[in-house]
Amino acid sequence: MALGRRGSRRIVVDGVGCRWRLRRRPTYSPGLCWAPCIYAVEHADRRSIVLIVTTNQPHASN
Questions:
Q1: Which domain of life is it from (predicted)?
Q2: Residue 16 pairs with which residues in a beta bridge?
Q3: Is 4 a domain residue?
Q4: Residue 29 has pLDDT above 60, yes or no
Q5: What is the rounded distance in angstroms from the CA atom of residue 62 to the CA atom of residue 30?
Q6: pTM here?
Q7: Is residue 3 part of a domain?
Q8: Fewest Cβ atoms nearer than 10 Å: which of 2, 20, 33, 48?
């Protein structure tokens, strides 16, 4: 799985380029703060390496 370039943001962590993406609108459960915020981070050069991050915070649009 690779992230689409559209809607993702580039960051640099310890000299390594990455892209991250958060859903623009939360789905039903995260929208009601029943589920945590989840976002994806991928390596900028090797697009097949994807990390899924789950936080204990609600979605930012709430």
A1: Bacteria
A2: 13
A3: no
A4: no
A5: 9
A6: 0.62
A7: no
A8: 48
